[in-house]
């Protein structure tokens, strides 16, 4: 976030800003901020505070016979002893470990593919973006259909392998269910990142490529010495955004596999949804929420740190 | 490929002019082949969805799914679409989705741009603190507060309504930040001129700043609309019957009924997807442009 930089520039442009005549400026400012501020407090800050509070209590969604009381760290201890939680966390990490590099590399490749000056190139850009404007629930339904036993995916695999591969029961198979969810997620999300990479590519000055060609650099060398370093900030943004999305994984799983088979596709968000909403264990789910927010916070702070590093160097 | 392609080819041509046209032609063929391959991967599943929606004979539909006929509407029929309306009030779900998205986007434009205007162009005590708060809130993922928020709205008696799906999402820290970034870039001379003419701050916001802000308004609207048109977790938690249920939850309920009717499911999915695709196709040029111009700055 470059707000400091931008404000510094503005400060230079108007060094002597005179105060507004009259003293209503602060009142106006707070009045204009009030609606957003009230909503943010009510629907972000209060529930976040509640999550912190409930995490240390035995709160339930519907008041039971036992009163809500403080139970210290018991929720956290139980979570750490819960094999389903560990399985969910492992699945989230496995998902991120595969999807982040594969999706980002594919997005960069597609961006390079559609960054050329050719006829119909704008149409291809739009086509690659189509899955992104398709709602995830619909995407999950379509792919469940395509991945079914005698569906298109198995038919294509059979054809290209001359009958040696498949058919696979993708969604029912403990080993294949998570890869299937990964594939669907990449298919849906890659277009968005392609657009971000495309913007990054277009920010790299053409003169750098021209100079490299004068020095006799080949295309591959240009890619490694100009394109890749020129995309540094884009890489960081894409990697961090995809990692955060990987930890928010829910919709695809809920529609395609409901976390199964045998928790092979269970995720943290789905498990905290299941505990808090389906099993009404709000305290338990809140403790998991706190851990989840902590993970996302750590990822975002890593991004800030990486970007600051870059600015100091530059 | 990409930026370096064209200049690299012409540099080679300077050395060996005779080979130039042949190489370039092959390169173009290869490039278009790759482009077409990926186009097939991204469009194929949606073509199968639309084509299958027109196949009424369920057995035949399943038999053809593993063949090239999955892409051809053999014996097209509108029966599946009629079935969807017979089984569920699709139009009700569509209306619900539209009301919720319009409420979030419309309310969000007003509320988020106002606070961003105050932060970017007014000076008041507490401004820096407020700004840090907003930037900090960008990081909090909704999934992390969904369960306690459910308890909160449950106590308020808001379950199963429009406002429970709209109000929590109107104020959006990232949208505020996008507005803020855009507003601080607008030259001060614009409002100083208006000030001389006797306009007050509210008037400057409304008739000077907002009309200049079409690009950021477009970006914020697109991002919010895409996000909440596809919202699933929260509506799944707070809607009960059919009255306020949006398309996403209805789609999943429909899909989860056994025995599954793939023809009907694909008709539902098609009706939910094609209108959005048409809007996207109509505006795709600045759609992609406005997203790419704002994305990296997050």
Could you characterize what this model shows?
The complex is a heterodimer of chains A (314) and B (298). Chain A is an all-alpha fold and 314 residues long. Chain A has helices at 3-13, 25-54, 74-80, 83-113, 121-133, 136-146, 152-160, 177-203, 206-214, 219-230, 232-247, 251-256, 268-278, 282-313. Chain A is globular. The model of chain A is unreliable at 1-17 (pLDDT under 50). Chain B is an all-alpha fold. Chain B has helices spanning 5-15, 20-53, 58-64, 79-87, 90-121, 127-137, 146-155, 163-170, 173-184, 189-196, 201-212, 214-229, 233-238, 247-255, 262-295. Chains A and B meet through α1, α2, α4, α5 and α6 of A and α1, α2, α5, α6 and α7 of B.
How does the SSE layout of this entry go?
The complex is a heterodimer of chains A (314) and B (298).
Chain A: H1 3-13, H2 25-54, H3 74-80, H4 83-113, H5 121-133, H6 136-146, H7 152-160, H8 177-203, H9 206-214, H10 219-230, H11 232-247, H12 251-256, H13 268-278, H14 282-313
Helix pairs in contact in A: 2-14, 3-14, 4-8, 4-11, 5-8, 8-11, 11-14, 13-14
Chain B: H1 5-15, H2 20-53, H3 58-64, H4 79-87, H5 90-121, H6 127-137, H7 146-155, H8 163-170, H9 173-184, H10 189-196, H11 201-212, H12 214-229, H13 233-238, H14 247-255, H15 262-295
Helix pairs in contact in B: 2-15, 4-15, 5-8, 5-9, 5-12, 9-12, 10-11, 12-15, 14-15
The geometry of chain A reads as: globular
Order of helices and strands of chain B: HHHHHHHHHHHHHHH
Order of helices and strands of chain A: HHHHHHHHHHHHHH
Tell me, rounded to a whole number, the average pLDDT of chain A: 87
Say what oligomer this is. Answer: heterodimer
Look at the structure and give the mean pLDDT of chain B.
88
- Choose one word for the global shape of chain B: globular
What is the rounded distance between the termini of chain A?
Answer: 15 Å
Total DSSP helices of chain B? 15
pLDDT < 50 runs, ≥5 residues of chain A: 1-17
Number of strands of chain B: 0
Q: Structural class of the helix and strand makeup of chain A? A: mainly alpha
Report strand % of chain A: under 5%
**Most residues in contact: chain pair:** A-B, 122 and 115 residues
Task: Please report the distance between the alpha carbons of the first and last residues of chain B.
Answer: 28 Å
